[in-house]
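In response to the reviewer comment on reproducibility (Comment 2.3), we provide here a single inverse folding case reported in full, input and output, so that an independent group could reproduce the run without further information from us. The structure tokens appear first.
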């Protein structure tokens, strides 16, 4: 189940907690984050990346046209991935990108945590969620210690995912919310 928890960054005090998709989208819109639900394709667990891309082609093509993004791929991170700890570590530090960071969750879940205007916006995204975090937004991502996520990634820059770390330790001080 999708969940948004908003907290004060200084005190950790909870400001809002909701699992209603419309309220999540409404709460994220003022900081420029796009959140929506897409129908989930009926594919076998662990489907090949090309099959995942093709299953979402109509939605993906419309999204690419609307946003003028250039390419998409599929990322899969599971508990048995030999580099799961190293991959998790690079996502866990607060960073920004020079382009929007867009993910659509086909399988599993993960938390996009945005740090904006003294607040922490912790979006626990699950199967069927699309989230687009605007360029230059301070954020981090956590798929958990036992990751299970297959997601479409959309890029404007065809060279792929390029983080610019902020040097802040806030991600280590703010636990993610999973339900």
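Designed residues, in position order:
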């Amino acid at each position: 189940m999708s969940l948004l928890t908003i907290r004060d960054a200084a005190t950790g005090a909870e400001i809002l907690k909701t699992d209603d998709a419309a309220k999540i989208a409404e709460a994220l819109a003022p900081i420029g984050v796009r959140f929506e639900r897409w129908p989930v394709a009926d594919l076998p667990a662990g489907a090949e990346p090309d099959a995942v891309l093709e299953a979402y082609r109509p939605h993906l093509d419309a999204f690419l046209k609307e946003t003028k993004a250039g390419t998409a791929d599929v990322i899969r991170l599971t508990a048995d991935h030999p580099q799961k700890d190293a991959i998790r570590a690079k996502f866990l530090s607060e960073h920004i990108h020079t382009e929007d960071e867009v993910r659509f969750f086909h399988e599993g879940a993960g938390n996009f945590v945005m740090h904006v205007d003294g607040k922490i916006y912790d979006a626990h995204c699950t199967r069927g969620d699309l989230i687009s975090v605007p360029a230059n937004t301070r954020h981090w991502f956590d798929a958990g210690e036992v990751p299970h996520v297959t997601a479409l990634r959309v890029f404007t820059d065809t060279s792929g995912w390029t983080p610019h770390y902020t040097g802040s330790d806030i991600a280590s001080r703010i636990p993610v919310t999973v339900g």
